[in-house]
Specification:
CATH topology: Maf protein
Structural class: alpha/beta
CATH class: Alpha Beta
Largest sheet: 7 strands, mixed
Oligomer: single chain
CATH architecture: Alpha-Beta Complex
Length: 209
């Protein structure tokens, strides 16, 4: 699904390789311009509100520099028993998080915001997905935390990577857990006329076929 090859109308206001991957898999043409906001300056409120406000701040920050573009901002958190699980800074922290999640259901919230200043349009919302982990053995946890995967991921796991074996089931959007609810993003862009379903481009190489 292409909006423009030469001068993309879309900007992803994130340096996340996972969000970039998701939009590429959907066939979108876009530029990547990470926001420069201080995330610590955004007060933590309810999980739903926090990620939405943060995504709006990211989109607004980049939109100020590119007012004629459609800018996508997003933020994702993992919540277990009302506690936000961020990115672990050590193997010990990753081990603790995975033990908390083992055999339990947790929530993944992603707030996303899409705006275009020239058109005075902005939309944002929060999507929630329930994730159930299998019962993890100590051996499985030790193996996983000795990979490089947990340390730049909220909740210390990547559902799209090696961590796929940790997840028994999900209820809700899979791409939301990866970092961006692609279905909702594309629906909005089609509604606004930024994308057209008639311009879907199939590239077999992209899907490894």
């Amino acid at each position: 699904m292409k909006n423009s090859n030469d001068d993309p109308l879309l900007i992803l206001a994130s340096s996340s390789p996972r969000r970039k991957y998701l939009l590429e898999q959907a066939g979108l043409s876009f530029s990547v311009v990470p926001s420069s906001i201080d995330e610590k300056s955004v007060p933590i409120s309810s999980p739903e509100t926090y990620v939405r406000v943060l995504s709006e701040a990211k989109a607004d920050n980049v939109s100020e520099k590119y007012p004629g573009k459609w800018v996508i901002g997003a933020d994702t958190i993992v919540l277990k028993d009302k506690t936000i699980l961020g990115k672990p800074g050590s193997r010990a922290e990753a081990r603790t998080m995975l033990k908390q999640l083992s055999g339990q259901t947790h929530q993944v919230f992603t707030g996303y915001s899409i705006c275009c200043k020239v058109k005075s349009r902005k939309f944002s919302e929060t999507i929630k997905t329930q994730v159930l982990f299998k019962n993890l053995t100590d051996q499985e946890i030790e193996w996983y935390i000795h990979t490089t995967e947990p340390f730049d991921k909220a909740g210390a796991y990547a559902i799209q990577g090696l961590g796929t074996f940790l997840v028994k089931s999900i209820n809700g959007s899979y791409t939301n857990v990866v970092g961006l609810p692609v279905c909702e993003v594309i629906e909005f862009l089609i509604k606004e006329g930024v994308l057209s379903i008639n311009n879907i481009t199939y590239n077999s190489n992209r899907f490894g076929v």
